[in-house]
């Protein structure tokens, strides 16, 4: 086996965490000299802003009146087969089970029918809602189960997600083992930057895709409770379905210019670093990559203790955790850090140190590389034999 691999990465082209991790992984693997191809229906933002030699394949498919929507997942399968025929792919790494593991497993089956080259192996990384919401829905659950058991390896971004997946999807006769590989962050880009002077008003920040699970209106209510009669401000970065509800909540609470909606931004380290605290109030969260990015910038986190969040944030050391159903406690935690700058800064320093020790890019990318090599070393029986 050659030292350098040819790797296809499949992901959603969004600001969401799975697209970020897939893009950052593709960039790191390319920097290590592997031939990396990224397949998606648009260029993911993290890739668009990088100079690394990842080959991008935008596969949107042909719109046709028979289709209610254009099946870009099939176009991705076709793009993969073209690249495999031309130069050979060793690994297909699908991020977020649906639809990417479908595209990857279909491409592997098609490649197995061609005796010219060994077919690529499929690694599927589960990110959270692909299991907890989308994949568990009866409309997709049987397919999700098949995708996990048919991948050459399946990983999850936290212990919590791995256990959930095994509980719900590893029930049949075919055993499935989910390996945990935590997410990582570029600690050189996400690094503490100069804090503003002591006279600045206390500031909280939140970054997300404003999906219902993030509970942004709930977070604004908690912030309002924590900051009555103060000038403290809340900066909200990102966009999504709950944005108008969130704006209305802020308006109804009379928060005025104390809450600012910045929309989707790439300048995250610059926006995170000046904050006193990062807030994450999700009802479920398999990992919480946005919190990790804040911690890497030296910002402590107040978060709900759901899913994999306690694996990322050490309660009382790098942030404060609170039960998901207790808004008053969450608000109290926010106040504790927002109005005690010394404590917040000490926790922020501890957060940065913990990120460097446990979540830096190099060792995590090593784990993925080792996994690729171990699935390539195994003998594989093609489907149907
Ligand atoms: O948040 C989502 O709806 C989807 C998903 C994504 O594509 O961003 O987020 C998940 O993957 C991230 C990267 O692994 C994790 O950091 C997030 O915790 C996880 N979101 C949820 O579990 C809600």
Write the layout of secondary structure elements.
Layout: E1 6-10, H1 17-31, E2 35-40, H2 45-48, E3 55-58, H3 72-87, E4 91-95, H4 97-112, E5 121-126, H5 129-132, H6 141-150, E6 153-156, H7 159-169, E7 178-180, E8 203-207, H8 216-226, E9 233-237, H9 243-252, E10 259-263, H10 268-272, E11 277-280, H11 289-296, E12 301-304, H12 309-312, E13 319-322, H13 327-338, H14 341-358, H15 361-377
Parallel strand pairs: 1-2, 1-4, 2-3, 4-5, 5-6, 6-7, 8-9, 8-11, 9-10, 11-12, 12-13
Helix pairs in contact: 3-4, 4-6, 8-9, 8-13
Residues 12, 16-19, 21, 96, 127-129, 157, 183, 209, 211, 213, 282, 284-289 line the site of ligand GMT.
Describe what is shown at a glance.
By secondary structure, the protein is α/β, with parallel strands linked by helices.
- Overall average residue pLDDT: 94
Q: Bound compounds, please?
A: ligand GMT
What's the story with the biggest beta sheet?
A: 7 strands, parallel
Give the helix tally.
15
Supply the CATH superfamily name of the largest domain.
Glycogen Phosphorylase B
Helix content: 40-55%
- Strand portion, in percent? 15-25%
Secondary-structure arrangement, i.e. CATH architecture of the largest domain? 3-Layer(aba) Sandwich
- What integer value in Å does the Rg equal? 22 Å
Overall body shape: elongated
What's the β-strand tally? 13
Low-pLDDT parts are none
- Using the coordinates above, name the CATH class of the largest domain: Alpha Beta
What is the count of structural domains?
Answer: 2
SSE run: EHEHEHEHEHHEHEEHEHEHEHEHEHHH
Strands ordered across the widest β-sheet: 3-2-1-4-5-6-7
The third-level CATH topology of the largest domain is Rossmann fold
